[in-house]
Design brief:
By secondary structure, this protein is of the alpha+beta class. It has helices spanning 4-22, 25-39, 49-73, 91-97, 102-109, 113-124, 129-136, 140-157, 165-180, 184-190, 215-226, 276-279, and strands at residues 85-86, 191-200, 212-213, 233-240, 243-250, 253-263, 266-273. The chain folds into two domains: 4-156, Up-down Bundle (Butyryl-CoA Dehydrogenase, subunit A, domain 3), CATH 1.20.140.160; 165-273, Roll (Nuclear Transport Factor 2, Chain: A), CATH 3.10.450. It has a seven-stranded mixed beta sheet with strand order 1-4-5-6-7-2-3. Interacts transiently with the RNA polymerase catalytic core formed by RpoA, RpoB, RpoC and RpoZ (2 alpha, 1 beta, 1 beta' and 1 omega subunit) to form the RNA polymerase holoenzyme that can initiate transcription.
């Protein structure tokens, strides 16, 4: 059996597995809760609680991915993960998010559910292929092949950003100031020529249905968004999945979360999440 203390000791790991697989805070929390309900009913001794709990959460997440496949195919506009938003430099909370950038979660989304499970368990949480094979009820050789394929896919698409955190924060803050000041020229100076911006409204709020590419196009798009009339808009500096970002509240409620990637002092990627369903887990600042 697994008692409450043992489960709580592994909760962070379990949420991390579920969140990386599902890209949804709410779904990850539901999976962790379902795992507790299942494990609390086990009456026999559990020799390896971490492995047993990881197996339970992984299979619950795989089931959710299967049922969510049709919904993802019908999604309106670009799909982005639900953001993990924390106050800047909150050590314990940032530990959970620092290895889960939005860019990496988008890469994981491009893997098959099985590839995602193997990659997360092996490359992120350090389980052996033998342990993973047992969790997934598959042969070890087959799991190794899946893991090798997943790792190659991720390495080919892995975002490569080496800018220190203070540089990312400075560039992000300068760009925000330029946006709020309507300084289009300064905005374009801070954007890489081939910058891409994704905005996720899920068909529920206004957002671009296709990625915006190029410094001028992205700058004009963001300037038009900021120019929209809003009720008591306030911008809050936050960390978004361990990266400097911002939270926009309108009338006291979370409206938009944005995060930028920086390379050579310029912004190369911007991800904007506006779908209300993906922000409902955020408390009002």
């Amino acid at each position: 059996m697994i008692d409450t203390t043992t489960f709580e000791e592994h909760r962070r790991m379990l949420f991390g597995i579920a969140y990386r697989m599902l890209g949804s805070v709410a779904d990850a929390e539901d999976v962790v809760q379902d795992a507790w309900l299942r494990c609390s009913q086990v009456s026999t001794p559990v020799e390896n609680p971490a492995g047993y709990l990881a197996r339970t959460v992984t299979n619950l997440a795989l089931n959710r991915l299967t049922s969510a496949a049709a919904t993802r195919e019908q999604y309106v506009g670009p799909w982005l993960p639900e953001p993990l938003v924390t106050r800047p430099d909150v050590g314990e909370e940032v530990e959970l998010a620092e290895s889960v950038s939005l860019a990496m979660l988008v890469v994981l989304e491009s893997l098959s559910p099985l590839e995602r499970a193997v990659f997360v368990l092996k490359d992120v949480f350090g389980f052996s292929f033998r342990e993973i094979a047992g969790m997934l009820d598959r042969g070890e050789a087959a799991v190794r092949q899946v893991g090798s394929r997943a790792r190659a896919h991720v390495q080919a698409r892995r975002p490569r950003y080496d800018a220190p955190a203070e540089v990312r924060r400075r560039v992000t803050e300068e760009f925000l100031a330029a946006c709020l000041g309507g300084d289009l020229n300064r905005m374009m100076e801070l954007l890489a020529p081939d910058v891409t911006a994704w905005s996720d409204g899920g068909g529920k709020v206004k957002a671009a249905l296709r990625p915006q590419q190029g410094a001028e196009k992205v700058a004009r798009f963001l300037a038009a968004v900021i120019a929209q009339p809003m009720d008591d808009p306030r911008v809050h500096a936050v960390d978004v999945n361990g990266r400097p970002g911002l939270l926009l509240t309108v009338a006291g409620r979370p409206d938009t979360v944005a995060c930028a990637e920086v390379e050579d002092g310029r912004i190369t990627e911007i991800r904007i999440i506006r779908n209300p369903e993906k922000l409902r887990h955020l408390p009002s600042p």
